[in-house]
Amino acid sequence: MQSAAERVELWVGAAILLTAAGFLYWSTAGNSVARGLGSETYELRAAFPNVDGIEIGTDVRVAGVKVGRVSAVDLDPATYLAEAKLRIPSAIQLPTDSAALIQTDGLLGGSYIELQPGGAVDNLAPGDEIEDVQGAVSLLSLMMKFVDAQAGDDK
């Protein structure tokens, strides 16, 4: 026979395992399902001069809302640009003059790709390239420019 303490431990352990399974589901598939975006996606390309902080699995957002992920990042040996492949839901159709910008969440936050829809009549088709891009801005280089400017003012 089990004692009351053993039964409580069993139920607490089961609750912890169930909670862990729920978090696992939410972190993988549950996030897009909760938004009703479904599983139908298509891929767009964007060639950036600098993709610092962007890797496979990085968020793709529209108006601050996560709508997709980066599926690949490769170097184009002909242009030396970093080509990111963005997987977004088929329900989101972007105009051909849309822009892709690499943004950061605050000073110490991670990077993500922000898509800014344009106003063109035609939409990007699967596999098309977003032409209007802005690469990652290095915080360190901005701070060095500021320090250099301040040092120049002192002279």
From TrEMBL:
One Pfam family named in its UniProt record: MlaD
Protein name according to UniProt: Outer membrane lipid asymmetry maintenance protein MlaD
GO MF terms, alphabetically ordered: phospholipid binding; phospholipid transporter activity
Keyword annotations for this protein? Membrane, Transmembrane, Transmembrane helix
Task: Give every Mce/MlaD domain span.
Answer: 41-118
Residues annotated as transmembrane: 7-26
Q: What superkingdom does the record give?
A: Bacteria
Keyword hit for Transmembrane: yes
